[in-house]
Design a protein that fits this description.
This protein is α+β, with helices and mostly antiparallel strands. The N and C termini lie far apart (50 Å). The radius of gyration is 21 Å and the shape is elongated. The chain contains 3 helices and 4 strands. It has one domain: Pemi-like Protein 1, Chain: D (Ribbon). It has a two-stranded antiparallel sheet with strand order 1-2. The chain has a two-stranded antiparallel sheet with strand order 3-4. The longest helix is centred in the first third of the chain and has 15 residues.
Length: 98
């Protein structure tokens, strides 16, 4: 099943049957953390270091997996209109190797 369809399935199940699972938020340093249960992570193909996009829609927190990293996303948008020329920063100073 395609990942997007799985997400929509989970949303539909939430709407029809209520929360799929209840989890608590815990403090992690200066932030708050949400632990994703193993079964849900496996179903949604989320693993350690997966990139998720966080949004707020209609007052609800929505997590969506990203298939590419931020760098890949930014580089994919480079084209001839926004590609800048090389920048000369002057002579090397110190022990830089060129």
């Amino acid at each position: 099943m395609h990942l997007t369809l799985i997400w929509y399935y989970c949303i539909i199940m939430y709407i029809l049957k209520g929360p799929i699972m209840t989890v608590s938020i815990k403090k992690w340093g200066n932030s708050l953390a949400l632990r994703i249960p193993k079964d849900i992570a496996r179903t949604l193909h989320i693993e350690n270091n997966s990139i998720l996009e966080l949004n707020i829609r209609n007052g609800a927190l929505v997590l969506e997996p990203q298939n590419e990293t931020l760098l890949e996303s930014l580089v994919s948008r480079i084209d001839s209109d926004n590609l800048h020329a090389e920048v000369d920063t002057g002579k090397a100073v110190g022990n830089e190797e060129w």
